[in-house]
Write a structure and sequence with these properties.
Distance between the termini: 34 Å
Number of helices: 5
Helix content: over 70%
Strand content: under 5%
């Protein structure tokens, strides 16, 4: 199992190093071996992640002593925990959708008028507040379970 985690870590490190090379030396990006190397790196990472999911699920299913020690989780409790996570998930997605256009517009307006930097931060903060509200709702709901 640890070898899969090592392969995934090497895949992530390869992508990070590739990004640094592309940023520092853009002339090397035009090499004919560069794009296939990135594709193979991503393919190895996705394959290792899929193998980890399937092999890891087998190991978790086989651990009966852990299930006995932790107590029983009913279907209602499981659905309740999923319901607690939904506000955080949806508010985070909403905040991401809001921050994208606001950030792009902020950068565009800062190029013309750098003195309104504070106003753009306020708008970005309001958009990020959506995610905070969802997290607070999840914490309050988690207290009720």
């Amino acid at each position: 199992m640890y070898w899969l985690i090592a392969v995934m870590t090497l895949g992530i490190a390869g992508i990070i190093i590739t990004g640094v090379i592309m940023e520092m030396q853009p002339a090397k990006v035009s090499k004919p071996w560069f794009k296939p190397t990135i594709g193979i790196n991503l393919l190895v990472f996705v394959a290792a992640q899929a193998a980890l999911i399937f092999m890891g699920a087998n190991e978790v299913m086989a651990a009966t002593e852990v299930a006995e020690a932790g107590g029983e989780i009913s279907i209602g409790l499981g659905l309740g925990i999923i319901g607690v996570g939904i506000p955080t998930a949806l508010s985070t997605i909403g905040a991401g959708i809001a921050v994208g256009p606001i950030g792009a517009a902020s950068l565009a307006v800062l190029a013309e008028k750098p003195e309104i930097f504070g106003r753009t931060l306020i708008y970005l903060g309001l958009a990020e507040g959506i995610a905070i509200y969802g997290l607070v709702m999840s914490i309050l709901l988690l207290d009720k379970i």
